[in-house]
Design brief:
5-stranded parallel sheet; 41% helix
Length: 887
């Protein structure tokens, strides 16, 4: 019995193949591809499964020699420029190591990716012009030396800058990686945390379409070019947005994977093939895939191999074999190709080992790279992935790091290796210039220098360059929020509901309403904001191609081509990437937008903290809303949904202004202040504001407290006159418990309690640290006092703070509190129960607060200790109950 893959009719097979070759020859590749597509569709309709691995093509270049466009540049001059950049990048790292010692730097990453950059910079990457901000290039983070080397040739950086690579403290230094915060006129994107650049780039491309479809920018040909390594593709963020990009038909993004087959410690897929794996991944996600595997020196061999034996063999061997053969030279390459195959051995009989050893990878051949870029730039309807096979440490010599597992860790080169490098790239450097790591920059009248500047002039300008144009917005006055400031009347409302009201008000504002970008993962209805569906619509590149089942409802699910809301599905990382695109739109697109990303607070900083840090580095401006905030406000959800620490995490981000408002008027004041700071004054900060789902009466705003809300605390209510006094500080979900505790203390023990609403312990800490530093460096002047001290100095009694977060949150201001300070918080794991039971369990309810206040008085000998026991008995507090943090 024959098997499915046996050829039972060779004559018929020959006729089919001959017909296809004829079609290919006379009708061209496009027609042949069309016929194959039709055959595939017919097979699928007939229920015939295609062969396994059909999404993976043979291990060869996508484009044949005949399909390659003529190279438009001067290859000789480009190779000289490429060589100079390579040397200056090496000299920069080696000089820094020699002179500064220990500052590090990478040699192999840029060496591997240099040609991929140079072809783009010479022929494809459009710089900023008067009419356009240009293309968006996500350069690979570990290759920054190459960007600096080219900027040095272009005259944008000086030799002193290069001398100070990774030495920034004294000024005129260069940051280790792409950091817009440190080099705000140079870098655009923070990408060195692996995988983050990839997901950012995908959502950046989508945001470009969003701005087009909403009429903020004209339709254009701007491209997003992303570079990453094949090892980096193991990061979940690197692949998380692939199907989104295909679904949205993002033909404005080109994803270039430098497949040098190596991670930091060694091979990526030593037992298989990373290129083939990635091709299947991208094609399966709906992408156009272009492979650039072999350089032009292979073309003659492939041409004479009429039976395709070489490609078949190259497809069979694994990456570990390919790497070893490259390192060990021509004889090893012959053995790899000819293994158990006499036909290939005969094919290569007249090819010397030296020639085989010179066969290179496609990522280092400008002609092959140009063909791929040109096709990618023209492709419509799909995103494109270019899988370019290179060699890690290319040019550094196989006796050094070239192609070896140790490539990433090579930080030095011997004198012999330097000379070999110089000779290989034909650099006009003396032995002394080599060993002294002298930078090389030809005279500005040299042909290569003239050519370099002309090519960039044709493309609009130099890259990377970050813009920060002045475009202040007219933001509304606080009075616009009057319906919120007046409180909720007889109705109970959560601050999340108040946020929905604020959205409605802002969206109607004639100056900034259209610039508001509400971003949600998949919880708009959970947050009670489904009215936004109908009001502004959900953005969809395709519009709404169906009639929603809830069309007859007032708040039906409405998608629109010009929809304003971004609802990304269940992907906090995707939402953050959209938020970053919108929050940096003032720079990237010359269009300031105002993003609000609203999420379950527990899935905020904890879930996407790396993206938030990158956003700060990129000078993002916008609002993050941590809804259902706190550990006890969310009933029944349990440990993984309850947030007791995100505000403390937020304090680590220098540009984050984090607030925990209890009342709607506090939220309105903070948001209006944020709008003014970020979009009128154009400060590079962002705001993190907590919101809760607990409903209660929202009071009217007292007069004259706006400054206190912004600074971080204000006196909410003064205690009644009494001999004993305490100061109670509360925020967010627990402030109302603090208010209730003050009433207990007054009524049950005649203790007067002043209640302070602390909207931001983070901001109080920030101001306090600043004052401490000023005092330290001005010892001859009268010490300034912090805002916390200013508030409390005229109010007597010990200070007790209670929040819905771990104690360390409120403990941030301990050094600024002028007397005894006790902190209550929700340390430990969360759990499911009612709010009342949870607050009792974590010892932050009104009864525990009251008992703690009495204990603070007892410690100061102002009341007897037995009064504390009396209070515990009165409030049914069990002193023997296990602590919440007990394991």
């Amino acid at each position: 019995m024959s098997k499915a893959w046996d050829d039972i009719d060779p004559t018929e097979t020959h006729e089919w193949l001959a017909a296809f070759r004829s079609l290919l020859r006379f009708a061209g590749h496009d027609r042949a591809r069309f016929i194959l597509s039709k055959l595939s569709q017919t097979a699928e309709k007939s229920g015939l499964a295609l062969a396994e691995g059909a999404r993976v093509t043979p291990y060869c270049n996508t484009f044949s020699v005949e399909q390659q466009p003529a190279y438009p540049g001067d290859l000789s001059l480009e190779q000289k420029i490429d060589a100079i950049n390579r040397w200056n990048a090496i000299a920069m790292v080696l000089k820094a190591k020699k002179n500064a010692g220990g500052v590090g730097g990478h040699l192999s990453s840029y060496a591997s990716i240099a040609t991929l950059y140079e072809v783009g910079l010479n022929h494809f990457f459009h710089g900023a012009t008067k009419d356009s901000p240009g293309d968006l290039i996500y350069f690979q983070g570990h290759s920054s030396e190459g960007n600096y080397a080219r900027a040095f040739l272009e005259g944008r950086l000086t030799e002193k800058h290069l001398d100070n690579f990774r030495q920034e403290v004294q000024g005129e230094g260069l940051s280790s990686y792409p950091h817009p915060w440190l080099m705000p006129d140079f870098w655009q994107f923070a990408v060195v945390s692996l995988g983050l650049g990839a997901l950012q780039a995908l959502y950046q491309a989508r945001f470009l379409k969003y701005l087009e479809n909403r009429g903020f920018i004209k339709p254009n040909n701007r491209k997003v070019w992303l570079y990453c390594g094949d090892g980096e593709m193991d990061e979940p963020e690197s692949v998380a947005g692939l199907t989104m990009a295909a679904r949205e038909e993002l033909d404005n993004i080109v994803y270039i994977v430098n497949c040098n087959l190596q991670r930091l410690d060694g091979l990526v897929r030593s037992n298989t093939k990373i290129v083939q794996e990635l091709e299947g991944l991208f094609r399966g996600a709906g992408w156009n895939v272009i492979k650039v595997l072999w350089d032009s020196r292979w073309d003659a061999l492939f041409a004479r191999d009429e039976k395709g034996l070489l490609i078949k063999r190259l497809t069979q061997c694994v990456d570990g074999e390919l790497q070893a053969a490259y390192v060990h030279g021509g004889a090893a390459m012959r053995e790899l190709l000819c293994k158990d195959n006499d036909a290939i051995r005969e094919l290569l009989a007249d090819v010397s080992d030296e020639t085989l050893g010179q066969l290179g990878r496609g990522a280092h051949d400008p002609v092959k790279v140009f063909a791929a870029y040109a096709a990618a730039a023209k492709h419509k309807g799909q995103p494109t992935a270019i899988l370019a096979q290179g060699v890690k440490g290319y040019g550094l010599g196989v006796t050094g790091a070239e192609g070896r597992n140790v490539a990433h860790n090579q930080l030095e080169m011997t004198e012999a290796e330097l000379k070999t490098f110089r000779d290989r790239f034909k650099l006009p450097l003396t032995d002394e210039q080599l060993t002294q790591y002298q930078f090389y920059k030809p005279d500005k009248k040299n042909p290569e220098m003239i050519y370099l500047h002309e090519q960039r002039k044709k493309l609009g300008g130099y890259i990377p360059t970050r813009e920060s144009p002045k475009h202040p917005l007219t933001v509304p006055l606080l009075s616009i929020f009057e319906p919120v400031l007046k409180g909720s009347g007889d109705r109970a409302a959560s601050t999340t509901m108040v946020l929905g009201r604020i959205f409605t008000i802002l969206l109607k504002d004639p100056n900034i309403g259209s610039r508001i970008v509400p971003i949600f993962s998949d919880e708009v209805r959970t947050f009670g904001m489904e009215a936004l569906f109908r009001q502004i619509g959900i953005y969809s590149h395709h519009g709404q191609l169906y009639t929603p089942e809830d069309k007859d409802q007032l708040m039906y699910y409405r998608e629109a081509h010009d929809g304003q809301m971004l609802e990304e599905g269940i992907t906090e990382a995707g939402c953050m990437s959209s938020w970053i695109a919108a929050a940096t739109s003032y720079s990237m697109h010359r269009v300031p937008m105002i993003p609000f990303f609203t999420f379950y607070s527990m899935f905020g900083f904890q879930r996407v903290g790396d993206f938030i840090w990158a956003a700060a580095d990129m000078r993002a401006r916008g609002f993050l809303i941590g809804a259902t905030a706190g550990r006890t406000t969310l009933e029944g959800e349990g440990l993984q949904h309850q947030d007791g620490h995100s505000l403390l995490m937020a304090t680590a981000v220098p540009t984050c202004r984090a607030y925990d408002p209890t009342f709607g008027y506090e939220m309105a004041v903070i948001i209006q202040h944020g709008l003014k700071v970020m979009f009128a004054e154009e400060q590079d900060v962002f705001f993190y504001i907590m919101a809760m789902n607990e409903k209660y009466h929202q009071p009217e705003m007292p007069a004259g407290i706006e400054e206190g809300i912004i600074k971080g605390m204000y006196l909410l209510q003064a205690g009644k006159s009494a001999k004993l006094k305490v100061q109670l500080l509360g925020s967010g979900a627990i402030l109302r418990e603090v208010i209730a505790a003050a009433e207990l203390l007054q009524n049950d023990f005649n203790v007067s309690a002043d209640v302070w609403s602390v909207t931001s312990f983070n901001e109080l800490r920030r101001e306090g640290l600043q004052i401490e530093r000023e005092n330290l460096f001005s010892p001859d002047k009268k010490p300034k006092i912090t805002y916390v001290e200013t508030c409390l100095q005229k109010h007597e009694g010990p200070v007790i703070a209670a929040t819905d977060y771990i104690r360390a949150y409120a403990d941030q201001i301990r050094s600024f509190v002028p007397r005894s300070y006790t902190v209550l918080g929700t340390d430990g794991f969360g759990r499911s129960d009612t709010r009342e039971h949870l607050r009792s369990f974590f010892e932050v309810d009104r009864y525990h607060i009251a008992v703690t206040a009495l204990y603070a008085l007892a410690k100061e000998n102002l009341v007897e200790a037995k009064l504390v026991k009396t209070a515990m008995q009165k409030y049914n507090i069990n002193p023997d109950a296990p602590a919440p943090v007990t394991l």
